[in-house]
Amino acid sequence: MKLLKSLIHLLWMMFTLIPCALYVLLLRVAGASKARLYRGAVFWLRNCVVSLDRICGVKYALHGMDNLKGLEGVSVIVLVKHQSTYETFLMPVIMPHPVSYVFKKELLRIPFFGWAIGCLDMVHIDRSQRAKAFAKVVEQGRMLLEKGNWVVMFPEGTRIERGQVGAYKLGGTRLAVQTGAHVVPVAVSSAKCWPRKALLKKAGTVDVSVGLPISSVGRTPEELMAQVQDWIESEMRRLDPSAYA
Fold first, then answer.
1. At a CB cut-off of 8 Å and minimum separation 6, what does 72 contact?
2. Over 84-146, what HEC string results?
């Protein structure tokens, strides 16, 4: 039954992706604002999250959202624990500001999905050219932060198995130090319900915990990332203790 429900959800995402992506592309051709394009894309992401609840029983619980209050007019970089595809869908749905992802340019080649995200305010990089890639992150990240977008990055770089700790890379905190942005760490226990690279989704609750904003002023990228990692990994052990037994 779990496999059947998971397949139904996958088919539903694919079925709804095509018209939503075409809608975003038509808006782009019509010269719609970036804000309207973003709302069109978030509509599909919200549909994916809601349908995952209704079809597979995967819910989410938010903790610490009050920590995001008082950040109006403040540049913010959100650094998120990465265990699953789920948090990539969820962050734009729950965040109080438009968000911009930093992602590998290969995603732009995915039919419909890649075409749609190519219309949005995102930062797509060539990871094989590290120096040029980070220069692009700084240049476009600064521009997006000035527009009021929050930049979302996954410091581990890729999805990590439940109960494991990836190598926390400094890109997010380097960007924060160079732009003077605040950093908000986020812990997500998504692998409990949607494991890394798995088709099968399991009913349950994904806990999403938002930490206090951390100022980057006077900090080095290394010490700032160490603080982010300490908080995220400590919080992961609180949210999902059985995975770290």
1. none
2. CCHHHHHHHHHCCCCEEEEEEHHHHHCCCHHHHHCCCCCEEECCCCHHHHHHHHHHHHHHHHH
Report how far residue 21's alpha carbon sits from residue 37's, in angstroms, rounded to the nearest whole number.
10
Q: What is the distance of C-alpha 95 from the center of its chain?
A: 10
149 within 8 A of 97, measured Cβ to Cβ? yes
pLDDT tens track for 222-243: 999 999 999 999 999 999 999 9
> For residue 148, is it left (φ>0), alpha (ψ between -120 and 50) or beta?
left
Which string of b and e fits 26-44 if b means at least 16 CB within 10 Å? ebbeeeeeeeebbebbbeb
pTM score of the predicted model: 0.94
The strand pair at 204-210 and 182-188 is best described as: antiparallel
Torsions phi, psi of 207, nearest 5? -90, 130
Q: Which domains does the chain have, with CATH numbers?
A: 58-244 (3.40.1130.10)
Q: Which two tokens stand for residue 78?
A: 């959100």
pLDDT per residue as tens digits for the range 22-59: 999 999 999 999 999 999 999 999 999 999 999 999 99
Q: What is the DSSP string of 22-62?
A: HHHHHHHHTT--HHHHHHHHHHHHHHHHHHHHHHH-EEEEE
Query: Rounded to whole angstroms, how far apart are CA atoms 45 and 11?
Result: 14
The 10 Å Cβ neighbour count of residue 73 is: 6
